């Protein structure tokens, strides 16, 4: 299933997540997946360079009933991995 960020999500920067351990800022365009496993597609800011079409796979700690793009971004991630 695909989850798109609403204009309100983007205005409130709910489509962004900063991964402190890697010093990476992810800006999501949309999320695809179901259950606990998802892929965030968007851009990544790494060492001052922006990479477009960047994909990050992640698994949630707990499954969310009736998920939205914003709720998936704010949920606790069990793990994540950069795909490209």
How does this model look, in words?
With 84 residues, this protein is mainly beta. Helices cover 13% and strands 55% of the residues. It has two helices and six strands. Strands 1, 2, 3, 4, 5 and 6 form a six-stranded antiparallel β-sheet that branches. A hairpin with a 2-residue loop joins strand 4 and strand 5 (49-60). The protein is globular.
Q: Give the uncertain stretches in residue-range form.
A: none
Number of strands: 6
N-to-C series of helices and strands: EHEEEEHE
Shape: globular
- Percent of residues in helices: 10-25%
| CA radius of gyration | 12 Å
The proportion of strand residues reads over 45%
Distance between the termini: 20 Å
Main structural class = mainly beta
Mean pLDDT: 96
- Biggest sheet statistics: 6 strands, antiparallel
Concise summary:
By secondary structure, the chain is mainly beta.
How do the helices and strands line up, and which of them pair or pack?
Elements: E1 2-4, H1 7-11, E2 16-19, E3 24-34, E4 37-46, E5 49-60, H2 69-74, E6 77-82
């Amino acid at each position: 299933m695909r989850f798109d960020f609403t204009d309100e999500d983007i205005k409130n920067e709910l489509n962004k997540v900063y991964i402190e351990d890697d010093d990476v800022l992810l800006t999501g365009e949309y999320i695809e997946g179901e259950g606990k496993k998802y892929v965030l597609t968007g851009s990544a800011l790494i060492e001052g360079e922006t990479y477009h079409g960047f994909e990050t796979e992640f698994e949630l700690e707990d499954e969310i009933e009736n998920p939205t793009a914003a709720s998936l971004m704010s949920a606790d991630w069990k793990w994540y991995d950069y795909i490209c």
